[in-house]
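To illustrate the input format used throughout this study, we show a single complete record. The first block contains the structure-token representation of the backbone; no residue identities are included at this stage. The design step must infer an amino acid for every position from geometry alone.
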């Protein structure tokens, strides 16, 4: 047998070392650089698998728009929440979980009513961990299993009387760089305290099975819960919102709960009300309610149908990280022609088939790690082979450059000029505008995910065009709404007038956009805008891997609450007196439409009142 050339042997050794290094790093935990690619590939495999019917073990009782309307406001009074719990408990569920934080004291009578209801049923409450970074990172490098549990600065626990009436668990989920929930930690720590997750506590309460923590997994009674590093349970979504059976809480208040949906089920009470903010993007839905994310993890624990990604699966990933690049490099060394390329393609397709089939059957083999292990050696070795043979050198160099290019996230021009921009928080004057769609949650349940995506894309494009034309900056899109800031990179004298003009332009464009929609859609949604001017704290939020420029402070909160004032008064825009005075008498709200006020408005969560002007179009 002919001995392989020295350069091929060197290439195979280096390839094995590279693959082993990536595989071992992956075995110890996620690799931040590869994590984003793995998230995208996981979403793709989810979509390829399609929606599926979840096991009939969990029912969501949603505090939705209709419930909020019937109760008179949101959040629900705790006495009303107690009535919902009593109605559910009367139908004998296995357990009731409250996916809401009861950390603040309410009216004494209301709190007492809720406490009585909790004592009379098998209930689990939600607590939350406060983390120092946007991602729940593990700070300790230790071989002790519990050292890799997500470590919180503190726990936000329910009020003492509620905690004494029911057990509680930590409700946080772990998202990837796109904001998609990827894992639900089963355990959390804060100092020396170890607390179970909300999902684990609720399932344990429902089944009566004790929870046992073992070195590499968790047991519920005699059943093993397969978890990843740090006791993280992977999520596998069933479909878009509503895939897990959801019933409005107003059915409980009206005595219309279907017994077959409650009896012997786990019932999770959570908010899906418009503007509640607890939504996540998933492969099937850009705005999946947080209560459905939690219910997905509970269903996994009950039915055992979630993804398996434990140490055994990561060992398989290690084998692929070494084996796949070795096979590809060997084939490239064996045949530098069409036959060799066909064989390489066959190996890649075979690996893809194994990976996708395993994912479909509930085993989460990494796709990004083998790709990262195989692509650089294969490309480099192939490039060297072509260079040595002086064949197609120019073409391959272009392809290699294209494939290996690192695409950095786009930065605004001023950030490129000043990389230290907002490295430290800055207090400054700014105008803040919020816009939100009314009735969107109910509509999205009726028209399906494809129509929802198209509707949101049209809304986002409209907002982006008008904000850009007015000289503002969109700091974030939040489901069916947006937050807009006038004052970055530096505050300008015309920020208030620009913000006021932007409000009017947005209102005009929104009316035209809604008028162009089909009547069945346009009749069900509207919009509201709130705007305020004052001091904000501009800063970068997030960890080193992912940061976002945003603004916080009372001015931001007031602008957000002013949308509620606009909705209550059947107006399109609610503008604070502070913003109008700063904008001047020649600003757009005075010159166009009908401006009424000022009125003294009380804002939710804020003491005292605020002088507010209401703007409506002449139409």
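Output of the design step:
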């Amino acid at each position: 047998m002919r001995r392989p050339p020295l350069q091929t042997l060197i290439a195979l050794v280096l390839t094995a070392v590279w693959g082993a290094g990536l595989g071992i790093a992956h075995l110890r935990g996620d690799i931040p650089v590869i994590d984003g690619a793995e998230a995208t590939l996981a979403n793709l495999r989810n979509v390829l698998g399609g929606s599926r019917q979840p096991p009939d073990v969990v029912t969501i009782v949603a505090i939705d728009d209709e419930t909020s309307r019937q109760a008179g406001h949101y959040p629900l009074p705790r006495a009303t929440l107690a009535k919902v719990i009593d109605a559910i408990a009367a139908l004998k569920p296995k357990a009731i979980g409250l996916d809401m934080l009861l950390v603040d004291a309410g009216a004494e009578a209301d709190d007492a009513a809720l406490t009585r209801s909790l004592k009379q049923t098998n209930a689990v409450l939600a607590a939350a961990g406060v983390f120092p970074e946007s991602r729940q990172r593990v700070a300790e490098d230790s071989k002790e299993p519990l050292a890799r549990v997500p470590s919180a600065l503190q726990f936000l626990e329910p009020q003492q009387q509620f905690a004494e009436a029911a057990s509680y668990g930590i409700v946080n989920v772990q998202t990837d760089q796109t904001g998609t929930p990827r894992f639900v930690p089963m355990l959390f720590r804060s100092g020396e305290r170890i607390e179970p997750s909300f999902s684990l506590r609720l399932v344990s309460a429902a089944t009566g099975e004790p929870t046992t923590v073992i070195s590499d997994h968790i047991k519920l009674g005699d059943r093993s819960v397969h978890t990843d590093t740090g006791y993280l349970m992977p999520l596998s979504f069933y479909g878009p919102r509503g895939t897990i059976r959801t019933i409005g809480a107003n059915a409980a208040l009206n005595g219309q709960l279907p017994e077959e949906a409650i009896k012997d089920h786990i019932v999770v009470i959570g908010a899906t009300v418009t503007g509640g903010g607890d939504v996540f993007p998933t492969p099937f839905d850009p705005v999946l309610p947080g209560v459905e994310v939690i219910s997905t993890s509970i269903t996994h624990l009950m039915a055992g149908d979630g993804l398996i990604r434990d140490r055994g699966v990561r060992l398989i990933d290690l084998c692929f990280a070494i084996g796949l690049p070795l096979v590809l490099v060997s084939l490239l060394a064996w045949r530098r022609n069409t036959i060799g390329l066909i064989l390489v393609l066959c190996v890649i397709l075979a690996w893809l088939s194994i990976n996708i089939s395993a994912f479909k059957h509930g085993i989460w083999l990494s796709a990004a790690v083998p790709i990262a292990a195989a692509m650089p050696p294969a490309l480099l070795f192939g490039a060297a082979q072509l260079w040595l043979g002086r064949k197609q050198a120019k073409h391959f160099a272009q392809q290699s450059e294209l494939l290996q290019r690192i695409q950095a996230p786009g930065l605004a021009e001023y950030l490129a000029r000043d990389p230290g921009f907002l490295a430290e928080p800055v207090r400054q004057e700014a105008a803040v505008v919020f816009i939100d769609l009314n009735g969107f949650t109910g509509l999205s349940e009726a028209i399906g995910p494809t129509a929802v995506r198209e509707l949101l894309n049209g809304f986002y494009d409209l907002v982006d065009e008008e904000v850009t034309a007015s000289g503002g900056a969109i700091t974030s899109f939040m489901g069916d709404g947006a937050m807009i800031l006038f004052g970055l990179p530096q505050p300008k004298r015309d920020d208030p007038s620009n913000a006021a003009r932007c409000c009017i332009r947005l209102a005009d464009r929104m009316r035209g956009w809604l008028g162009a929609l089909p009547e069945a859609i346009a009749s069900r949604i509207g919009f509201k805008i709130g705007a305020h001017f004052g001091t904000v704290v501009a800063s970068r939020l997030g960890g080193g891997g992912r940061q976002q420029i945003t603004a916080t402070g009372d001015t931001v909160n007031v602008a957000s609450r002013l949308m509620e004032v606009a909705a209550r008064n059947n107006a399109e825009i609610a503008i604070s007196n502070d913003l109008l005075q700063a904008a001047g008498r020649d600003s757009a709200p005075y010159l166009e439409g009908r401006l009424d006020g000022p009125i003294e408005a009380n804002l939710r969560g804020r003491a005292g009142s605020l002088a507010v002007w209401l703007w409506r179009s002449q139409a």
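Structural context for interpreting the output: The first helix runs from residue 6 to 28. The CA atoms of residues 55 and 518 lie 36 Å apart.
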